[in-house]
Amino acid sequence: MNRYDLIVVGAGGAGMMASIVASRRGKKVLLLEKLPKLGSKLKATGGGKCNITNTLSIDEFIDAFGRGGKFMLNALREFDNKALIEFLDSIGVKTHSLDGFRVFPATHNSATILDALISEVNRLNINVLTNCEVKDLIVNENKIYGVRCKDREFYSDNVALSTGGLGYPMLGTTGDGFEMANRVGHKIVKPYPAMLPLKTKETWVKDCTADTIAKVTIKIDLPKYKKLKAIGDLIFTKKGIRGPVVLDFAREITPLLDKYKEVPILVNLTKGLNEDAILKHIKKYPNLSILDIINKLLPKSVANALCTQLNIDQNSLYKNIAGFKREKLLKTLSWTPLTIVGHDGFKMAMITRGGVSLKEINPNSMMSKKIDGLYFCGEVVDIDGPCGGYNLQWAFSSGNLVGNSI
To answer: Which residues of the chain are modeled with pLDDT < 70?
Structure first.
């Protein structure tokens, strides 16, 4: 009774996908979840709206992941965005893309997808155990034989770890998959929180919390990292910055905070305008106060805060401002300096950067190169992408590959 063709540890998107695909192939599957319900983190994805994928080509999709992106090629060739949309349609979930890029369930409710996945799991009579925490893998001579829970063991020649990373620990992702993989000899690339707000040394940001600023560019102001940048909407908070561009870029900054403690960044708040273009804009309005001129480019709260920081009288005409202050103003409007000094850690991180080393996983099957029959899918491996459906697509693509590989 305790022997299966596949045991899947972790019932998120990747784990349910691996279970469904293997079961459709006639395999006897056991799906184990330590929480009382399946898919808790999936339900919370995207604030509950669940941006499931996007419309990029495979090559464009891979490029967005940067390092390690090519590892995904085989999984995406077998199950790309079109295949995912077709799969969801087959289990009763209609999707759409209102902006031509991001794909959501038509209901804009993640529960729609979760309920459909659970219904398919039930339809296939997949054995599911909730409130069942796997404590260890049963391995002998580099071969998997099953898993050990608190008071019982389950046996299989194929085990898939889909335990997620460390983000949102209240939803079950506590890094236990990393620990189990490490105990059987796998290298774990140090995990860092990603896709989360960032804290700044500068306190003036607290005065600018009312508005979202569109098409902001962020880049790191350190010699080795100047090529790293991101573009998107930014929101100031009481303690720093957030918004899509920050969530995307946090994955580059959190590892650097370990090394440097403070990470200087430059932020273009003026939709990409350089100093010359900003000066041209200013000269269009010779009779307006400098505050009113900047307010045509930025929200008034931000314009006021920058004037204060530069010690410029906001009621002055541009021509009456001292030359060195004018020069500083143009530079600041072109690239506003900020200093990242921290974040709230994994409790606020939507995803994890780091995980099981890709060098030790076969990208054609997602099976371990160290332990025969041990597979990985989803966030447990060292792959993380930006906002926009990237990480969920990877979860389903990798889960599909595992389900087809055993």
So the answer is: 171-172
Model confidence over 144-198: pLDDT tens digits? 999 999 989 999 999 999 999 998 777 667 899 999 999 999 999 999 999 999 9
pLDDT tens, 352-383?
999 999 999 999 999 999 999 999 999 999 99
CB atoms within 10 A of CB 385: 24
Measured at the alpha carbon of residue 310, what is the angle toward residues 308 and 312, in degrees to the nearest 5? 70
| pTM score above 0.90 | yes
How is residue 301 written in tokens? 């709260």
Q: Which two tokens stand for residue 54?
A: 């996007």
Mean pLDDT over all residues of the chain?
Answer: 96
Within the chain, which residue ranges are assigned CATH 3.50.50.60?
A: 3-191+354-405
Amino acid letter, residue 138: I
Give the model confidence (pLDDT) of 203-230 as tens digits: 999 999 988 999 999 999 999 999 999 9
Compute the distance between CA of residue 112 and CA of residue 97 in angstroms, rounded to an integer: 16
Give the span between the Cα atoms of 187 and 315, in whole angstroms. 60
What is the predicted pLDDT for the residue at 47? Answer: 74
CATH of 3-191+354-405, one of 3.40.50.12780, 3.50.50.60, 3.30.930.10, 3.10.450.120: 3.50.50.60
Question: Mind spelling out the 3-state secondary structure of the chain?
Answer: CCEECEEEECCCHHHHHHHHHHHHCCCCEEEECCCCCCCHHHHHHHHHCCCCEECCCHHHHHHCCCCCHHHHHHHHHHCCHHHHHHHHHHCCCCEECCCCCEEEECCCCHHHHHHHHHHHHHHCCCEEECCCCEEEEEEECCEEEEEEECCCEEEECCEEECCCCCCCHHHCCCCHHHHHHHHCCCCEEEEEEECCCEEECCCHHHHHCCCEEEEEEEEECCHHHCCCEEEEEEEECCCEEECHHHHHHHHHHHHHHHHHCCEEEEEECCCCCCHHHHHHHHHCCCCCEHHHHHHCCCCHHHHHHHHHHCCCCCCCEHHHCCHHHHHHHHHHHHCEEEEEEECCHHHHCCEEEEEECHHHECCCCCEECCCECEEECHHHECCCCCCCCHHHHHHHHHHHHHHHHC
Measured distance CA(98)–CA(122) in Å, rounded:
32
